Amino acid sequence: MLEKIREGSQGIVAKTILVLVIFSFAFAGVSSYLGSSTGVPAAVVNGDEIGANELEQAFQNERSRIEQQLGEMFTALAADETYMNGIKQGVLDRLIADKLIDQAANKLGLRVSDEQIKKSIIEEPAFQTDGQFDNERYLAVLRQLGYQTTSFRNMMRVDMTRRQLLNALVGSEFVLDGEAKQLAQVQGQTRDIRYLVVDSTPFLSSASVSDEEAQNYYDANVSQYMSPEKVSLEYVELNAADMAKNSEASDEEVKTYYDENKAQYQTAEKRLAAHIFVASTDDDSADKAKAEAIEAKLTAGEGFAEVAKTDSDDQLSAQQGGKLDWFEQGVMDPAFDEALFGLQKDQISSIVKSEFGYHIIKLLDLQASQATAFENVKAKIVAQLQEKKALDVFYSLQTKLADTSYEIPDTLNETAQAVNAKVQSTQLFSRDNVPANFNNPEFIKAAFSDEVLASGLNSDVIELAPNHVVVIRMKKHQTAGIMSFADVKAGIAERLKQDKANDGARDKAAEYMAQLKAGNNTLTGASLTTLTKLGRFNQDIDQAITNKAFKIAAPAENSVTIDTAALATGYAVIVVDKVNKAEGINDNLINTLKQRIAPQYSEADYRAVVASLKADAEIEYPVAD
Asked: Is the torsion defined by CA of 321, 325, 329, 332 positive or negative?
């Protein structure tokens, strides 16, 4: 939270792991420092409670962080209760880890004095003005964050005490040069290989699957054929856009609207400006004197364009004799704008000062404001009036929709009659194949909610889009279960055929491998592709081939090593001819790898300590009655 405090830990290793802990500490908010919560705690760690309010505050903070990170994608994820419960459990796990670290620090007798806290506050740049501690700024920042001074100091005490233990933990981890060099040698190693791919597609035509084989596969793998929970809904829908299509606007109404709102259909007056510009410097009196000298030249009769070319600091417009562009009122600097729109054509202004410097402005030309012809905007006005009438009706019906569906919650018939609509229905769908017109997170959440499924009641009004709402109720509910053999038989048959085709490709690959091992490099109906210096992270060939090439043992001198690799649709035969040592290993690469490995070591240490503390801890999860 405090950058200066974070900088107290030495080195990138400590900083990396401490960020994780600081974030988890921040998630807890200030609730635990402002008083204990009542009710059933979320967890009890060695007798110390983690309050339900503390968990909820931390969860909401984490939710906001993820929402900010993922944007609109998070809305869809938030509709999945299982996903959100997983997030909440992760937050609780972090709070428990924090509690265990705090208890361990206290057990070790780690303490932070008032003087240390005071020193950290005074040295924190966020509380300084011109490099000096500013008490008023300090209090203002705390107020903005919602802290009292006492609660803030208490929070810092816990944070800094915890950090003493973590500094000792992560600060003791280091990476040897030899470790980093060994990793660089392994990662940078390349291999010279030859390979061929045996595609399984030609074997499909000869593969056949009996009903008995399909049934046996189904019986052995029945857990793969779980049907997701599905629901079919009845619904009443209101959409202002559809209403607008059916609303009417007479010619008289359209003409009246045009006459009453002519200002909306006026093109703005535009003015073509030119200027001679004196850019602002540190010496305003000299700037003004320069502008006055230019004005004197113009008064003496010198041409505006010629003076602009020689004296204007705006080199771009100076080449055009000071000419700028066409401007509507309100676009330019206020002083420039006022002067320009106060001129007559070909008139030159007096000296005008803006925030950029001094200007002398000339009005070269103007385009007067003009009214757009009625016929040119008639269609637009019709659409506006239709939309307005539709919205008036929509808002009235939306109220009836909400009231009626709530007052008569066990049917939608009366609701449909009240809003002059009809009850419609959907086919069965799961969370993963919602009808496109209803693929909305709030709709999905309501469709699978207890209110709709368990209670059988009408839902609340759901907004699908602006001025587009719906109320739903359950028509049919199908719980998650096992799909019948008849429903999945065709898919199983196709899968087994592919497996048999793959087996054929595997057998053919084994034949080729046997020939190669026997020293026969001339293969019937196939040829090897040669690839030198294949890198471990190469993306140009199938990743399965690359992975296998680096798992095959290095060949002895004057020999090769051969193996096969399973692909998505077939098999590959791989010959490793040579293993090449890594190139380009230098001190910069080794130092980079050390910096990359160290945080991984530190994070592993941190997780190991937390796991050890958890193993020895007594953690309870009370459940409310």
From this structure: negative
